[in-house]
Amino acid sequence: MVDIAERPTRLAAPTTAPDAVAAPGSGARGPAGRLLGLGGRVLHRGVAIVALAAIWESAPRLGLVDRVFLPPLSEVLVAWWELLRSGQLAEHVGASLTRSLAGLGLAVLTAIPLGLLIGWYRPLAELLSPLLEVFRNTAALALLPVFVLILGLGETSKIALVLYACSWPILLNTIAGVKGVDPLLIRSARSMGLNHLRLFQKVILPAAVPTIFTGVRLAGAYSILVLVAAEMVGAKAGLGYLINYAQYNFAIADMYSGIITISAIGLVVNQLLVALERRFSTWRVDVTAG
Amino acid sequence: MNTDKILFDRVSKTFGVRGGRRGAAGAVTALDEVTLGVRPGEFLVVVGPSGCGKSTLLDLLGGLTEPTGGRVLVDGRPVTGPGLDRGIVFQQYALLPWRTAAGNVAFGLEAKGVPRGERAALIEHHLDLVGLRGFADRYPHELSGGMKQRVAIARSLAYDPDVLLMDEPFAALDAQTRDSLQDELVRIWARTGKTVVFITHGIDEAVYLGQRVAVLTSRPGRLKQVIDIDLGDRDAAEDVRSTDAFRHHRHQIWTLLRDEVRAAQAAEGATGSRTAHPGAGGGRTSVVAGADARRAAPAAAHTEEARVG
């Protein structure tokens, strides 16, 4: 969902790596070539965005769509700037980010340990897996009314919903990460007489880190997706509230400003998490190159 | 008996087999009453046709499984579990991919509880010993297969086990790398004085490396014969592999194995359901055909893994 164009670059990495080892210094692509390649790629990937902006700007102006419902991009950007200057945007962004980060943080703190336990203790996995199947196939948003009913309209229900939605990708990836550890590594470590705790600490956990991080990255995206929906119900601040409120008051440009801001935040959060994920899984190229 | 470093005392191992595609449930006897002693400081090679329980022998010695009959003794004491007095080198290296070469060597030292301050010197010494000076900071994915296996050997040597157990360690390598690693292994063995138990299905490898070669029969694995290898003065001969003594021993083992491979194939044919693929059978005959075995090695190794594991 997040990075369709991301994959080829990641897959391309292992094919270049062995060459680099075999003949260091004989890299055909110098720094200049690499810069050119990077520039080209940015340009290539930017084209679609620029095209979207151009269509957004021109379609309402040419009368292809009703400009009341879709104002030209420039007008939206002006409205966005106004929101930013008045400090309203910061307030909404702050409210939203606080909630989503709180939910995501709690999910990381609870789902990773739980996932490690479930992945490690087979009896627990067998006990819980039917339950997990039921819950993970229940859309988080379908539970929003339940959360509101039980936890009220305040912050608690919103953070709880984010926590719930974020827990699944982290939990499932953690379980998969623990279960997916190369059995040979475990055998090898066992042959050195490592006890269960040390085996877990030195082999299982580090081996599972990249998979866990993929889960955290997905959860980061969910945290924002779900939050906006939650904020459309009974909130006094937040980007979801802004969008909904602006639409009710027919401040269409403000509504689009909110939407753009959410996209931007989603992109930034994802990029940050991708960078973090890379940082923790540089060794993983070996696995993909297999 | 007390002179043996390692003693397999009438060791048997049977595996329960689940009923599946391959037929009814039952038990497979991997090893049947194997009695074999290894002297201190000896280089013993175990050869046998695919699925004869070579790897099981090593698992028992490593304490990763328990025998269903008999005893495995190291220094006169029964093996009760894994321990750092025995180091295992696996065919697929088993390096931790998130650790550098040095980090992987450190892993065994951490397991042994060597104080942090003493590790660096030991790591450097053992990477040197396997010829990997200057590669300490490389990650496994940056190393070739031969280099990875060198790291694995360094890791096992670093925590200073008395016994080095090697499970077809060179089977996944190309011929040149394998030859050079064999030379290095002999050199390292001579320098460190470890007792080495080396599992292989390559006859040349067995003759080249072993002081003695134990030949196992096909399933159920029994000890067929133990052959003393005498290649004369290794340093004198330019190419040990082409001496008369080498050829003599190779033929000796080849003859012993030929019948076993036939038996194994017959058994395979009887089980039948697997495949009638010519490649599979061809791979197994070539185990006997000396030089060809090297090319077929990885394929044959995989078949064996699939069958034993």
Description:
The complex is a heterodimer of chains A (290) and B (309). Chain A is mainly alpha-helical and 290 residues long. Chain A has two domains: 1-68; 71-289, MetI-like fold (Orthogonal Bundle), CATH 1.10.3720. Helix content of chain A is 80%, strand content 0%. In chain A, helix 6 (144-151) crosses helix 7 (155-179), helix 7 (155-179) packs antiparallel against helix 9 (196-231) and helix 10 (239-248) packs antiparallel against helix 11 (252-280). The longest helix of chain A has 36 residues, at 196-231. The two termini of chain A are 25 Å apart. Residues 1-28 and 286-290 of chain A have low confidence and may be disordered. By secondary structure, chain B is an alpha/beta fold. Chain B has one domain: 3-Layer(aba) Sandwich (Rossmann fold), CATH 3.40.50. Chain B has nine helices and ten strands. In chain B, helix 5 (175-192) links the parallel strand 7 (163-167) and strand 8. The longest helix of chain B is centred in the last third of the chain and has 28 residues, at 244-271. Chain B starts with 5 loop residues before the first strand and ends with a helix. Chains A and B meet through helix 1, helix 8, helix 9 and helix 12 of A and strand 6 and helix 2 of B.
